[in-house]
Design brief:
alpha+beta, seven-stranded mixed beta sheet, two-stranded antiparallel sheet, about 25% strand, elongated
Length: about 220
């Protein structure tokens, strides 16, 4: 049997099993064979739509009840049209005429990212969430899954929108804004952004660092 046919048969088996279980459960609630047969008729379509909505709602509700992250919203990031040269954009400068006020760049950030150049990026949306309890990076990465990785150009856009520490999406109250970015060697790193009163402080650390982030820090990831 080919892999495609095997997959189809396997899928049919799952479907039959679900249907059989559903029939047994609705019969326990008093529905007759005649009632169940009506589901296959045109008049049963509305009821099936409601049933599908209920399943989707229950699934989404379960996914939203994370014990680690509380979703706060999303933020639109425009497309970029030029290559993003990290060392030319992330520059310590707290003068009023600075493109963004950056007061500090960590040694790790400079070592890992100053050799990186990012290609123009399409429009995207980032999701941001509140960390509900202290955690190292591992569980956070598991929670956000394959949407963890963002670009430094996207981080820079967010900083630029709050260049003087204005209140908006990025926390400016001493708590960390956490991002996960590939460095010049393609290793995934945790990038920390916070406001220190004079400008934005930007650092980087290993995702295997044993030190935990604090509850109320904020985690960013791709929305799709």
């Amino acid at each position: 049997m080919s892999k495609d046919i095997s997959a189809i048969m396997s899928g049919m088996g799952v479907g039959i099993s679900i249907l059989d279980s559903l029939v047994k459960k609705v019969k326990k609630r008093g529905l007759t064979d005649e009632d169940i047969h009506k589901l296959a008729m045109p008049e049963g379509d509305e009821l099936l739509e409601k049933f599908a909505d209920l399943i989707a709602e229950s699934s989404n509700r379960a996914l939203s009840k994370s014990e680690l992250l509380k979703s706060l919203g999303t933020v639109f990031i425009p497309a970029t049209t030029e290559r993003f040269v990290v060392k030319e954009k992330f520059v310590v400068n707290i003068e009023d005429n600075a493109q963004v006020k950056i007061s500090y760049l960590g040694n790790n950030f400079e070592e890992w990212f100053f050799g990186k150049v990012e290609e123009p990026a399409a429009v995207t949306t980032l999701r941001y969430a509140k960390l509900l309890k202290s955690s190292v990076d591992g569980p956070i990465l598991v929670e956000v899954g394959d949407r963890a990785e963002v670009l430094l150009s996207q981080i820079f856009t967010l900083i630029e929108q709050q260049k003087n520490g204005e209140s908006s999406v990025l926390l400016d109250n001493g708590y960390a804004n956490i991002f996960y970015v590939r460095d010049a060697s393609l290793a995934l790193r945790a990038v920390l952004v916070d406001w220190d009163g004079d400008g934005w402080s930007v650092g980087a650390g290993s995702v295997d660092d044993p030190h935990a982030w604090s509850g109320d820090d904020q985690v960013f990831s791709r929305n799709s």
